[in-house]
Amino acid sequence: MTTIGYIVGSWAEGSVNQKLARTLVAQAPEDTQMVDLDIRELPLYGRHLDEDFPQVMQDFKDRASAVDGLLIVTPEHNQSFPAAVKNAVDILTRPGGTSVLGGMPVTIAGTSPGRFGTISSQSQLRQFLPMLGVRFMGSPNLAVGGAGDVFAEDGTADAQTTERARKFIAAFVDFVRAG
Ligand SMILES: Cc1cc2nc3c(=O)[nH]c(=O)nc-3n(C[C@H](O)[C@H](O)[C@H](O)COP(=O)(O)O)c2cc1C
């Protein structure tokens, strides 16, 4: 059994990234468990917290350290990724010397109503994630534009996106298992 933990960078009602995450969960290959690592309750990290690391942050780190691979599904906010995603990643690396990201297979996906489907957000994630000692899967990529037409109200994706999601999550699980 391969366990993939996922972080979704939006918990807005009707979030299209939550819908994309649900599509990826539904399309995950056999013998794969998809675990929502749930960043909603995480406070804002500050280095003064290292001395008495908050339990809610430690619990999140423990959940993340128990998975075989990490998937980040995130919107684009102001040409970048939301601060909540960076906060979550920072927490996974702190306190110093206790990062759970060393050697962790990581990949990213996202969707937006616009044409470019989170490309700017993803290109910025690509800049720093590999520097954290993760094993980064950069290809295939999953940046889904036109989210308003892709996802039905009930969250189901159209056939083309469902197939893209299936291939993407299969490639990531293969990448994780190959490590
Ligand atoms: C603060 C903010 C900034 C945004 N900036 C961008 C942007 O730079 N590029 C883009 O494609 N969409 C942008 N959007 C629109 C989001 O793509 C859209 O709200 C999308 O539905 C967010 O994903 P979600 O539904 O999963 O929350 C922005 C939305 C918000 C709330």
Helices and strands in order, then pairings?
Elements: E1 2-8, H1 16-27, E2 32-36, H2 55-65, E3 69-73, H3 83-92, E4 105-111, H4 119-128, E5 135-136, E6 142-144, H5 147-150, H6 159-178
Parallel strand pairs: 1-2, 1-3, 3-4, 4-5, 4-6
The chain binds flavin mononucleotide.
What this model shows, in words?
The chain is α/β, with parallel strands linked by helices and 179 residues long. Strand 3, helix 3 (83-92) and strand 4 (105-111) form a beta-alpha-beta unit. The chain has a single domain (2-178), classed as Rossmann fold (3-Layer(aba) Sandwich). It is 37% helix and 16% strand. The structure holds flavin mononucleotide. Flavin mononucleotide binds at residues 10, 12, 15-17, 75-79, 112-114. GO terms for molecular function: oxidoreductase activity. It comes from Nesterenkonia aerolata.
Could you list the spans in which at least 5 consecutive residues all have pLDDT below 50? none
Count of strand segments: 6
Question: Could you estimate the helical fraction of the residues in percent?
Answer: 25-40%
Structural class: alpha/beta
Average pLDDT, all residues: 97
Instruction: Kindly give the count of domains.
Output: 1
GO molecular function: oxidoreductase activity
InterPro entries: Flavoprotein-like_sf, FMN_Rdtase-like_dom, NAD(P)H-dep_reductase
Keywords: Oxidoreductase
Protein name: NADPH-dependent FMN reductase
Which features does this protein show?
37% helix; 179 residues; 6-stranded parallel β-sheet; alpha/beta; Rossmann fold; binds flavin mononucleotide
Quick synopsis:
Keywords: Oxidoreductase. The protein has helices spanning 16-27, 55-65, 83-92, 119-128, 147-150, 159-178, and strands spanning 2-8, 32-36, 69-73, 105-111, 135-136, 142-144.
